Amino acid sequence: MLRIAVPNKGSLSEPAVQLLREAGYKQRRDPRELVLVDARNDVEFFFLRPRDVAVYVGAGTVHAGITGRDLLLDSGASATEQLELGFGGSTFRYAAVPGEISSIEQLAGKRVATSYPHLVDAHLRSFGIEAEVVRLDGAVESSVRLGVADAVADVVSTGTTLKTAGLEVFGDPLLVSEAILIRSDGVPESTVAVLTARLRGVLMGRQYVLMDYDVPRDHLEATCAIAPGFEAPTVTPLHESDWLAVRVMVPRFEMNHVMDALYAAGARAIITTELLNVRA
Fold first, then answer.
1. Is the pLDDT of residue 158 over 80?
2. pTM of the model
3. Which of 30, 63, 120, 194 is the most exposed place for a label (fewest CB within 10 A)?
């Protein structure tokens, strides 16, 4: 039975549960439930603290799990990134009081506060910089004002929180993170092949729509040039007509522009359909 770890709370929890549900897996109804057996899919789910997912996967206690790339790297676990999941995005940056520290090189010999000590220490060492990494569980932006650190390394979205604390980001991002599917290094990739394919299929379904339209035969090449599809359009003759029915996959974010262009090229009866899952 495949064992999968899922975040039981935090920003990754609900999107992870929804993704697994759309992939056809049974999910818990009671948030207090920590173990769930999905007998039909031969899977057992374990709902764990987000920071613990990578630890359990790395130890081989569970075969795979959903966590953040940042949490995986900070854990030092023996686990491999299997698939990007497209949610839970975050960017890690250094920040300090403006005018005091403005480059990563100036962190040498300084104190850097963070909730991700292993990740930050590894990043500093990759630049040959020796600094004291101060571990805090939260609110690291207050550490400079309170005299605990000289700089911070934290997740930055708009930077408003850091500015309020009198800090300013500097240097390139340490890491751009998002939710990922991981597997234990001791688990063959084939063990999680079905899980990976199902999740990838849901993600593709979210990225594309199915578009159907009718077009005169002599306009077919022009419309196919506008929407060539994932591989190639499906073209079917209409009964006793010089018109053709065309079906094609189109990127969701381009959907309306493609419809405009197809209509201008002579296509009619253009319809878009949501995709729940795609196997390419």
1. no
2. 0.88
3. 30
- Three-class HEC string of the chain: CEEEEEECCCCCHHHHHHHHHHCCCCCCCCCCCCEEEEHHHCEEEEEECHHHHHHHHHHCCCCEEEEEHHHHHHHCCCEEEEEECCCCCEEEEEEECCCCCCCHHHHCCCEEEECCHHHHHHHHHHCCCCCEEEECCCCHHHCCCCCCCCEEEEEECCCHHHHHCCCEEEEEEEEEECEEEEEECCCCHHHHHHHHHHHHHHHHHHHEEEEEEEEEHHHHHHHHHHCCCCCCCEEEECCCCCEEEEEEEEEHHHHHHHHHHHHHCCCEEEEEEECCCCCC
CATH number, domain at 106?
3.40.190.10
Range(s) of the domain holding residue 133: 90-176
pLDDT higher than threshold 80 for residue 159: no
Query: How distant, in Å, are the alpha carbons of 72, 197, 234, 262, 268 from that of 81?
Result: 9, 14, 35, 39, 44
Number of domains making up the chain: 3
**CA separation for the pair 234, 232 (Å, rounded):** 7
Q: Indicate the pLDDT class of residue 156, thresholds 50, 70 and 90.
A: confident
Query: For the residues 114-126, what does the mean pLDDT come to?
Result: 95
CB atoms within 10 A of CB 36: 18
- Say how many C-beta atoms besides its own lie within 10 A of residue 120's C-beta: 26
